[in-house]
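Morning - adenosine-5'-triphosphate inputs below, output right after.
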Amino acid sequence: MTLLRATDLGARHGLLNAVRGVSFDVAEGEILALIGANGAGKTTLLRTLAGAHPLSTGTIVYADEDLAGVAAHDRVRRGIALVPEGRKLFPEMTVEENLLVAGHRARPGRWNLDTILEAFPALRPLRGRLASRLSGGQQQATAIARALMTNPRLLLIDEVSLGLSPKAVEEVYANLAALHDDDATVVLVEQDLNRALSTAGRVICLLEGRIVLDAPTAGLTRDEVVTAYFGFNAARQP
Ligand SMILES: Nc1ncnc2c1ncn2[C@@H]1O[C@H](COP(=O)(O)OP(=O)(O)OP(=O)(O)O)[C@@H](O)[C@H]1O
């Protein structure tokens, strides 16, 4: 079943068209990776889905409802949660407080403080720690956990592994694998191509704001991905 349909999306930063004529579907239960070079428009696109950045063109239909005019906080209530670039935790609140604040906007569902701490056991001993005192990996785990507290149907995660140690990346992806087993629908932005291809069932590559590749990851060669990513066939350059 299609959970989200984006049609002809455009988004601007002033005069710059950061997202241009982008159309794609997200099926319920799928993990979709958004890839592309720096500045390709991934963050802007994710933010338009969450309602954190305005559309200049196009429509987003989610769960059979047009999201035009639906504010970001109302999208959270409808089940769209964003883990933003830079995580944006409340630094002077504890891990637990960061989670509970998000819980105020929660839809009914299986996620609450107890089930979250079961799913993210590494957070349990950190409950009372200020977010500003967490490592990058701990912050990312808290940010994902905070999004889950809203019981999302669609989880949007920006820059999953950026700035994390290899061990922290392993932990964050183990959490994502557990979510997938739980039938969550996830759109993630990932700079690490190998990670993106091994985690997601489908990949969309953006180049200068446009989709240049939208394909299932199974059967996709690294060459095809790299060609889309850079906009030319690197292997064939002199
Ligand atoms: N706040 C802003 N003001 C002006 N231009 C912006 C702003 N944010 C992004 N841009 C520009 O919009 C384009 C798309 O940026 P965006 O952050 O969406 O890309 P991205 O693919 O997520 O890149 P990165 O991987 O570097 O985060 C880039 O050219 C960027 O310079």
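Note: The chain has one domain: 2-236.

O.
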